[in-house]
Amino acid sequence: MKFLCMKMKGVLVPVDDAGHEALAKVSGEDVVSVKIKKPRNPKLLRKYHALLDLVFKNQDRYPTRDHVDEALRLSCGAWHLIELPGGVQYKVPSSISYEDMEEIEFVQYLDRVYDAIARHYLPGITVETLRRQVEGFIGARIGG
Q: Cα separations (Å) of 106 from 13, 84, 92, 119, 135?
């Protein structure tokens, strides 16, 4: 069972009824395993998708938005190596999903994405301008 908690006065407390119900099923003497993982802010993923849209619409190298995504993952360090028979190694884009990349790591990745876009994908635009455009795009899409 999974549920969200917040720390209050040094104790983890469920934040909703589902969490309270799940915790009520645990006996007072039971030892349970707990994995501390801070959920990622969904706004960060919206920023990433806005950046993908911006790059895709302003270039002609990549035929799809997914290709832009893969290129950014590879050029910004979100990859792993696989080895094929014969010893040939290839970089493969890694997952940046909520389950696979925690918020701190995703923020660092997103900073590298801004830098890479400004340097290699849309030269002539500054990181600051990119950030302003993305914030404006996100605000317009979610109404504020």
A: 26, 29, 18, 20, 17
